[in-house]
Amino acid sequence: MLKSEYKIGRVWGIPIKIHISLLVLLVYMASNGAIAGGERGGFAGALGSVLFILLLEVLVFSSIALHELGHSFIAIRKGCRVHEITLMFIGGAAKMDSMPAKPKDECLMAIAGPIVSLTLGGVAMAIGIPLLYHSGGRGLGQFGMVLFYAGLVNLLLAAFNLIPAFPMDGGRVFRALMTPRHGRLKATYLAARLGRGIAVAFFIIGLFGLEHVRVFGMTLFRPMNFVLMMIAGFIFVTANREYRMVQVEELMRQRGFGSAWPGMPPPPPADDGDDTVVISPPPYEKGPDAKAELHHTQPRKSDNPFSRLFGR
């Protein structure tokens, strides 16, 4: 049976998965490269193009995995558990049980990914450009060209993620900066509004293009850019969803359930007779998940959290 995700490795105990959409993209790009290369140089040209594209794709998506591991490293250090990292055709995503509570920690976690991409882009450019120009585009020059494009993608990835479009990295930095002044709920509202506005701009650019914007002679925004339009849709939907989640957290806090972030009142103390469930609490540790510890008692109606939430 065809699965939607495939596990390809594990780092720091975090499963790394690849989504089937990425596999489809790899095959699509490789087949297009084979056709273009075959028209120029027959079988040898097609084979060379396929190898070039596959190597570039491996470097690019390895870089995206490292980008997400940069986020995960800070998240783990701040007490959050990272369940998995998934590589998709529009990039990568780290699944966590919660975000760092302090604005400073959220800002550090958000900025860690772009810093990794900037570092990788700079290193790849520093190695690739000399190889490309000193080898005349042959032999090591081909490898230098792969490194050059991989470095360029990393630099563009860092710049793109720093755009303040919540919930992208730049949007999370924006929310973290706004939280001390406006509070987490209002800061999330402002970040989500800004993110949805930028998403609309992305969709328009993806639809009509910006052909006069060029980087190293390449047009970045051609008309009918479906990838950019899908990213715009993802940002628009996710920004609104995350704002709703923070609204629920605020409602639960007001009803006396837990502390969503620092400075809020702690949860009411639990009686010794209450049920206790402990399942591999953060920080995330290597090795097998901790076993659940379950202690069953007969719950009282007053201890039901939903009775307090809905006033029953």
Structural description of this entry:
The chain is an alpha+beta fold and 312 residues long. 59% of the residues lie in helices and 13% in strands. It has helices at 20-77, 103-134, 140-161, 169-182, 184-208, 226-254, 305-309; strands at 5-11, 14-19, 82-88, 91-96, 210-215, 218-221, 276-278, 293-295. Strands 1-2-3-4 form a four-stranded mixed sheet. The chain has a two-stranded antiparallel ribbon with strand order 5-6. A two-stranded antiparallel ribbon has the order 7-8. A hairpin with a 2-residue loop joins strand 5 and strand 6 (218-221). Helix 1 (20-77) crosses helix 3 and helix 5 packs antiparallel against helix 6. Mean pLDDT is 79; it is low at 259-312.
Which structural category do the helix and sheet elements fall into?
alpha+beta
Low-confidence stretches: 259-312
The number of helical runs is 7
Count of all domains: 3
Q: What portion of the residues fall into strands of 2 or more residues?
A: 5-15%
What percentage of residues falls in helices of 4 or more residues? 55-70%
In order across it, which strands form the biggest sheet?
Answer: 1-2-3-4
The residue-averaged pLDDT reads: 79
Radius of gyration from the alpha-carbon trace, in angstroms? 23 Å
Total beta strands? 8
Could you describe the largest sheet, including whether it forms a barrel?
4 strands, mixed
The 3D shape can be described as: globular
Could you give the distance between the termini? 46 Å
- Helix and strand string, N-terminal first? EEHEEHHHHEEHEEH
